[in-house]
Structure prediction request, 224 residues.
Amino acid sequence: MSSGQRHSRDKPAGRSTRKTERRNPGHKRSTRHARGERKDGQSGSAGVRWFHGKRPVFQFVLIFGILMGLFHLACATTFVRKTAFPGYLRFNAEVSGWILGIFEDRVTVEGQSVGSPRYHLTIERGCDAIEPSALFIAGVLAFPAPLLSKLPGLLLGTVCLLVLNLIRIVSLFYVGVYWPKAFHVMHVDVWQALFIFLAILFWTLWALRASRAVALKAHASKDG
Prediction:
């Protein structure tokens, strides 16, 4: 009798245990679903954090692209093509002719042409350092730094590129005198690639210096 009573009492306990076991899988599924939602939320927040971390890069690329687009639009206008560029090329010819006159006899300048009894060249579009200067200027303006801190770098870098263009013209004159077969290679392949490299180099050096200045200013403001 006692053993039978114990057995009858054990049966309900077994039923309740089975019920709880039946309930547990649903609870596990809800827990897994909640964990999945947490993972999705964490991945979404990680994407937002990544975007905010890269925001200065996206901003730089966007501003740089807009500035270069405006530059090319300006170059396509009639005023720039018919007036501004020819005037600037004539200015380069005048200055280059003055420099060559220090070393050469009877140097003449006519419009965009510079010549002597030994060689004659014409300064055309592409021999003006305008595009490398535009790349440098757009890169500096797009960089996330205070505007006033950009002005010295803009001035110095642009002047250096324009002075180097005069050196290019003079060097090409002497390439034409002493090595005329290499004139095209030096003009198109060497000097143009070198100018793009120099524009990127000048911008990189300036950006490193500007980044240090911004970091030091931020550190000083935190200490204050």
About this structure: Residues 1-8 have pLDDT under 50 and may be disordered. The helical segments are 2-53, 55-75, 78-103, 130-142, 147-178, 183-223.
